[in-house]
Structure prediction request, 350 residues.
Amino acid sequence: MKNLLITGGAGFIGSHVVRLFVNKYSNYKIINLDLLTYAGNLENIKDIENADNYKFVKGDICDAEFILELFQKENITDVIHLAAESHVDRSISDPFSFVKTNVFGTVTLLNAAAKCWKKNLSNHIFYHVSTDEVYGSLGEEGFFLESTPYDPQSPYSASKASSDHFVRAWANTYNLQVKISNCSNNYGPNQFPEKLLPLMINNIKNNKPLPVYGQGENIRDWLFVVDHARAIDDIFHMGNIGETYNVGGFNEWKNIDIVKLLCTLMDKKLGRPEGESAKLITYVTDRAGHDHRYAIDASKIKNELGWEPSLQFEEGMKKTVDWYLEHPNWLEHVTSGQYKDYYKKTYLVK
Ligand code: NAD
Ligand code: TYD
Prediction:
């Protein structure tokens, strides 16, 4: 029996993790803590909201008093921490909210965990979900290993790197049993359309320009979000205490190639003549300090825990496109209001 606190469970990846754990572990109580920022959406987890082993709590990971009370009231036994500010472009225009949520928020959770679990630390796990962006930017060669030195380049990745360091400091200083994973770019249903793929899907659908930064030569490694949730399950249950696991899709793409693939898929889906959507591609001013390439070597998790991606990329992309086209209301809700202001500020000043 565990009372498992999952933070950020109304967001993109968190919602898939919450769903997997609620459905798979009926003997756990899953407490989903989320502040419901612009990126958090209870519609993402509507299908499990009435499950007996599930509870949603709205709250801020930076509120120390509230977090301590929550740990005590719900007798939290373990944590999987995903809540964060997660978008690089926003971190460039508003770095302080990244420091606050990603650094201060993580330390607040660590502090509450160490305090509440100190009598029996060996019964509890604090699992921190992080990103491959902490390792910095690669040239054309090489891969990120778990031993690659941290070299974050954006305010987002610097805040995540900092939070990873704090997690390790709590393991070393307070003997907290921690695990960390650093994953590559996720894609799939429920991703907020500020990130590359859902933004492009939404724009193709609405015949709007497709803003490709720079020359579109930057490279990312893409993983279907449900496969990341499976990796989190494996690491939480089978990963070694104190260890880091890199998670990736063995699937590198140049941005321009992935956008062209999406255009082809969507031409077919929308019944447009071949090549029609690609005419929307528009090269725009590059992101400041744009990391050139991320590439994960995920052999540790594959060899030690037997995890590997289950879905081929084209199949995952088709599923993703289908999901967005079949959920116009979801897109409509998340792209009204604040999103319009964000879009104007980000793309019209570039
Ligand atoms: P997201 O932005 O979709 O969701 C973040 C969630 O955190 C939202 O539901 C939001 O409401 C919540 N949140 C934000 N501030 C909060 C606060 N102060 N208190 C409580 N809740 C708060 O992010 P995501 O893409 O699902 O990423 C989840 C985690 O995975 C992050 O830690 C991110 O760094 C990491 N990650 C993401 C990717 C990716 O490709 N998206 C890849 C690797 C790692
Ligand atoms: P993004 O989804 O923001 O993820 P990250 O920056 O964390 O990797 O962006 C993925 C890549 O796509 C990145 O190289 C930036 C690029 N990009 C564009 O070219 N245009 C866009 O409108 C966005 C949002 C991203």
Q: What stands out?
A: The mean pLDDT is 97. The chain has twelve helices and twelve strands.
